[in-house]
Specification:
single chain, about 325 residues, alpha+beta, 2 domains, seven-stranded antiparallel β-sheet, 8 helices, about 55% helix, elongated
Length: about 325
């Protein structure tokens, strides 16, 4: 049985929850998963050998006018058997993924119950998700909400949730997951400020060409290298986005990009401030609470547990750093 080893202070106490909520089912479904993988591998190897033997026998013994029919029959039978074996092997994989995700999400909720309160009311969050797509802060598409939480730690009240945007169909289908933080400001600001990822010289040119707001230059070089800021009120933007706040965004982007593969790319951070709201979107983060990111093998479930705790533990720190740098954020 895979054991959860606590390696950071944030993981302290989770091993007990892992042994109670996750490990028993993980061991049961894990055995079925590996048994199915072994049977599928042996069956496909045997089927491949049988196919080539049959193909050779047909070519060598049957008349030329009859061998096409026999070959097509063998191909059809082989394809049907492969599909059947693959489906039977997929069932334990799906069961492991579903059950482990459910159990892992339950353990995560218990582990963070003193900090986060799960939210079930999604109506206003759905409006926020659609608004972000319309404003171009996230990938445009139909929005599907995942886990949503309200943070109660240290008097800081804010919400965060996962949202997956899907557009297109078939080979053109694009799926983009985001982690969205929704903060409140202590007063209404009279302008809209957008922070978007720097797209390079040519990409920025077209964004500025069609943007109704001016690009605002700021002082932090690392921030300017990674982000573009658009607003009609340059003075207010400089007041809101001090050099310390800019560094918070740089550190945020760097932290959530750690451990990502070359194919995944860096995590992109976008933000909007309007009225009394501040919304931050982090791209490429699957279900942060572990409900859907557990995966189809025991080791992937274990890795998802470490990743989920790491991300969830970081979210209050991100907000705290922003609050310390921006007195406008409601405490």
């Amino acid at each position: 049985m895979l054991k959860f080893v606590e390696t950071t202070p944030e993981e302290k106490g989770f091993a007990r929850l892992w042994d109670r909520h996750v490990a028993p089912d993980l061991e049961t479904y894990g055995r079925a998963y590996w048994r199915a993988v072994w049977i599928m591998s042996v069956s496909w190897i045997s089927l491949t050998i049988a196919f080539f033997v049959s193909f050779g026998v047909i070519k060598g013994l049957m008349p030329a006018e009859d061998d096409n029919y026999a070959i097509n029959l063998v191909i059809l039978a082989s394809f049907a058997l492969c599909c059947g074996i693959g489906y039977l092997a997929y069932l334990p994989y799906k069961k492991l993924a579903d059950e482990s995700a459910h159990r892992l999400g339950q353990a995560m909720n218990t582990h963070f119950q003193d900090q986060f309160k799960p939210l079930d009311a999604y109506n206003d969050l759905k409006e926020t998700a659609d608004f972000l797509a319309d404003e171009g802060l996230v990938h445009y598409g139909s929005a599907e909400l995942g886990a949503a939480f309200q943070c109660l730690e240290g008097g800081r009240l804010f919400r965060f949730f996962n949202c997956t945007y899907t557009s297109g169909t078939g080979n053109r289908r694009t799926v983009a997951p985001y982690l969205i933080l929704h903060l409140k400001l202590d007063h209404t600001i009279p302008a809209r400020v957008k922070i978007k990822t720097d797209r390079g010289r040519f990409g920025n040119f077209f964004i500025r060409l069609f943007s109704r707001r001016r690009n605002v230059r700021l002082s932090n070089r690392a921030f300017e290298k990674q982000f573009e800021v658009y607003s009609d009120d340059a003075g207010l933007t400089h007041e809101l986005l001090s050099e310390t706040v800019q560094q918070c965004f740089v550190d945020m982007q760097k932290y959530f990009s750690q451990g990502r593969s070359f194919l995944q790319g860096a995590c992109e951070v976008t933000c909007m401030m309007e009225g009394d709201e501040m919304i931050i979107c982090l791209s490429g983060l699957d279900d942060v609470a572990g409900h859907k990111m557990a995966g189809g093998s025991p080791r992937k479930v274990l890795k998802a547990a470490h990743t989920g705790i790491k991300r969830l533990s970081q979210i209050p720190l991100v907000v705290k750093n922003l609050q310390d740098a921006m007195p406008q954020i409601r405490r």
